[in-house]
DNA sequence: TCTATATTTCCATGATTATAGAATTGTCAA
DNA sequence: TTGACAATTCTATAATCATGGAAATATAGA
């Protein structure tokens, strides 16, 4: 991942409403949620939500698909994966430090299984 | 980690000069670098660098210590660790997705050894 | 078609952030 | 002390970002 792309993604997440939107979408992955449902859940005006969705979309953190009159937004896991990879690859101490997330809180099995995998695309 | 703390850290990293400073400090961990050395390496005016160092410091991403006339800045690995933990814990898909950094590009041994470790402080 | 609903764009406004020169503060060496 | 250097704070300015009402643009059903 390029520096500038990482900055775009970090900036997209570094905002209260947008982080809330993203986390809400994660809870509803992989189907996602309609914009109206997001607006209702988070109490955001339409225009404001639309603005933030565009930011998240531009950063590649969410995708959208139309279904009838609704537009569903879903998180793009690969982007978060790439960001975490970038941070561990470029922003963690070479010598000794931790920065190893290893596994998640409540779904350890899957994570552990993948633990030996080398990150293929990292420069 | 609290949401707002994560946002502070993300915002601190989401800026070209600051990310460059942080990455430079990572290269010089754990001793760090004097402000003047950072300014020279990155070609930043003193006042500008000072502004960004304060942001990084406020986010807990760097620490500083005085040594003679110099102030050395060093990265705080624990903060990056906590951020990566927050992202993997709260911002990665529950069902199936990847978001598992597992190991780093060129220092796999240490990482693999820690791969089985559960993240202790995560809610 | 007409109407209702979903979403986005337009726009103005206010707030925050980034930049960097100049002045200031702090530290050391002689 | 004085002088040299390191770093921060002060200050003004420009640029970017966030907010949300109002208007415009879909989409679907009757």
The amount of beta strand of chain A, in percent, is 5-15%
In the CATH scheme, what's the topology name of the largest domain in chain A?
Answer: Arc Repressor Mutant, subunit A
Quantity of strands of chain A, as a count: 3
Structural class of chain A: mainly alpha
User: How many distinct folded domains of chain A?
Assistant: 2
Q: Give the count of helical stretches of chain A.
A: 6
The backbone outline of chain A, from C-alpha atoms, is: elongated
Main β-sheet description of chain A:
3 strands, antiparallel
Strand order of the largest sheet of chain A: 1-3-2
Q: Which tags fit this structure?
A:
homodimer, 123 residues, mainly alpha, Arc Repressor Mutant, subunit A, three-stranded antiparallel sheet, 6 helices, 11% strand, DNA-binding
Can you put this structure into words, describing what you see?
2 copies of one chain form a homodimer. Chain A is mainly alpha-helical and 123 residues long. The first copy, chain A, has 2 domains: 3-77, Winged helix-like DNA-binding domain superfamily/Winged helix DNA-binding domain (Arc Repressor Mutant, subunit A, Orthogonal Bundle), CATH 1.10.10.10; 80-113, no CATH class. The first copy, chain A, has 6 helices and 3 strands. Chain A has helices spanning 3-13, 16-27, 35-42, 46-58, 77-90, 108-113; strands at residues 33-34, 62-67, 70-75. In chain A, strands 1-3-2 form a 3-stranded antiparallel sheet. Mean pLDDT of chain A is 83; it is low at 101-123. Chains A and B meet through helix 1, helix 2, helix 5 and helix 6 of A and helix 1, helix 2, helix 5 and helix 6 of B. The structure holds a DNA duplex (30 and 30 nucleotides).
């Amino acid at each position: 991942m390029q520096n500038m792309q990482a900055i775009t993604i970090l900036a997209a997440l570094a905002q209260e409403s947008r982080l809330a939107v993203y986390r809400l979408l994660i809870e509803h992955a992989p189907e996602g949620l309609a914009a109206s449902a997001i607006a209702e859940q988070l109490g955001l005006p339409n225009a404001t939500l639309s603005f933030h969705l565009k930011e998240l979309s531009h950063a590649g953190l969410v995708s959208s698909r139309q279904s009838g009159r609704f537009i569903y937004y879903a998180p793009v896991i690969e982007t978060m994966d790439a960001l975490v990879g970038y941070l561990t690859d470029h922003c963690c101490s070479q010598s000794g430090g931790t920065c190893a997330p290893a596994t998640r809180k409540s779904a350890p099995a899957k994570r552990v299984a993948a633990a030996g995998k080398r990150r293929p695309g990292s420069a």
